[in-house]
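in:
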């Protein structure tokens, strides 16, 4: 605002006082906004393709028979979260050995190794400070052994499940992550989220039922907002709305309770919910090596 010399001479002290106060408040608001932006950690979320699965009959993925005889295609993702305090790998996909194998298991494929994708970012598995997996099924912990030098953050019940005698009996699947048994480990309980970096930006949230210690990951991004990576809470797109439970889940009641808890959390914070195995959810991420921020 500009006053002419005449108008300025006629303006009352109260006018100047009001202008000064308004200007001061705007400066204070700008400073507060800048301070808030500076306090927000600079986090980048990378979505990596760690395999594909084609199901000729997805019947096992719903105990109500909805998918009997229905073919489905699933993506197997891995995620890298880069935080000023360190890097976290969330889920490690199908084992890299599949990429080199002359014959692939039926219905499974892998175009690129996880380690090769990390290399594109100038990283190796040894550079990753933290490892966490939604659960210990072969398509989520398949390269776990590559991160034995990382700190493994894992639900105590899930760790026990991963090393139970039945799991050890499958030499190929167990061998892919067996090295984690001696890794530096932080065991967490299912009664509360675990704050990975101590600032609330990345939290491992209990969601048991699919396995005893199944978890989801909440990542709060400065631009994109909160994102929930939901592991195997829902394998197939329509399973979310229909609340379908796979036949092979260890606890149906806990699964339903986890559905409700995660939906409530997502609604409260306005989170983007990512059904990890659903191709369209994966394709909605920036194409690697571009991150979501």
């Amino acid at each position: 605002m500009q006053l002419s010399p005449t108008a300025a001479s006629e303006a009352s002290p109260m006018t100047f006082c009001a202008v000064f106060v308004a200007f001061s408040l705007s400066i204070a608001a700008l400073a507060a906004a800048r301070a808030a932006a500076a306090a927000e950690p600079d986090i980048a979320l990378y979505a990596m393709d760690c395999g594909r699965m084609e199901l000729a009959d997805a019947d096992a993925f719903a105990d109500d028979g909805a998918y009997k005889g229905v073919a489905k295609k699933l993506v197997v993702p891995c995620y890298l979260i880069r935080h000023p305090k360190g890097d976290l790998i969330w889920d490690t996909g199908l084992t890299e050995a599949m990429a080199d194998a002359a014959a692939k298991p039926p219905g499974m494929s892998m175009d690129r190794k996880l380690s090769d994708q990390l290399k594109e970012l100038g990283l190796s598995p040894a550079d990753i400070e933290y490892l966490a997996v939604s659960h210990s099924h072969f398509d989520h912990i398949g390269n776990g052994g590559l991160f034995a030098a990382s700190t493994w953050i894992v639900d105590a019940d899930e760790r026990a499940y991963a090393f139970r005698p039945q799991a050890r009996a499958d030499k190929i699947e167990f061998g892919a992550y067996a090295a984690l048994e001696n890794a530096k480990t932080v065991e967490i309980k299912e009664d509360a989220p675990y704050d990975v970096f101590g600032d609330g930006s990345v939290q491992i949230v209990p969601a048991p039922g699919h396995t005893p210690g199944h978890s989801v990951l909440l990542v709060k991004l400065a631009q994109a907002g909160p994102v929930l990576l939901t592991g195997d809470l829902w394998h197939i797109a329509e399973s979310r709305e229909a609340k379908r439970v796979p036949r092979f889940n260890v606890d149906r009641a806990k699964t339903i309770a986890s559905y409700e808890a995660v939906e409530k959390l997502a609604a409260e914070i306005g989170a983007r919910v990512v059904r990890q195995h659903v191709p369209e959810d994966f394709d909605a991420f920036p194409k690697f090596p571009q991150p979501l921020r």
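note: The chain has two domains: 5-35, 43-283.
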